Amino acid sequence: MRTVRTLGLLGTGVIGGGWAARALHFGIDVIAMDTDPAMEAWIRGAVENAEPALARLISAPLPPKGRLSFTTSLREVAEGADFIQENIPERLDLKQRVLAELSRHAAPDVIVASSTSGLMPTELQRDMQAPERFCVAHPFNPVYLLPLVELVAGGRTAPATIEAAARFFGHIGMHPLHVRREVPGHLTDRLQEAIWREILHLVNDGVATTGELDDSIVYGPGLRWAAMGTNMIYHLAGGEAGMRHMLAQFGPALKWPWTKLEAPELSEALIDRMVEGTRQQAGGRSIRELERLRDDYLVAVQQALRQFNIGAGATLGALEERLYRAAAGGAEQAGTQGGSVLPRYEARARAEWADYNHHMTDFRYGQVFGDAMDAFYRTVGVDDAYRRTGRMYYDVESHVRHLAEVKVGEALYVTTQLLAVDDKRLHVFQRMHRASDGKEVATGEFMHLHVARDAAKAVSVDPQIRARLEAVLRAHAALPAPAGAGRRIGTRSQG
Amino acid sequence: MRTVRTLGLLGTGVIGGGWAARALHFGIDVIAMDTDPAMEAWIRGAVENAEPALARLISAPLPPKGRLSFTTSLREVAEGADFIQENIPERLDLKQRVLAELSRHAAPDVIVASSTSGLMPTELQRDMQAPERFCVAHPFNPVYLLPLVELVAGGRTAPATIEAAARFFGHIGMHPLHVRREVPGHLTDRLQEAIWREILHLVNDGVATTGELDDSIVYGPGLRWAAMGTNMIYHLAGGEAGMRHMLAQFGPALKWPWTKLEAPELSEALIDRMVEGTRQQAGGRSIRELERLRDDYLVAVQQALRQFNIGAGATLGALEERLYRAAAGGAEQAGTQGGSVLPRYEARARAEWADYNHHMTDFRYGQVFGDAMDAFYRTVGVDDAYRRTGRMYYDVESHVRHLAEVKVGEALYVTTQLLAVDDKRLHVFQRMHRASDGKEVATGEFMHLHVARDAAKAVSVDPQIRARLEAVLRAHAALPAPAGAGRRIGTRSQG
Question: Which residue, of B306, B335, B364, is where some domain finishes?
Answer without folding.
Answer: B335
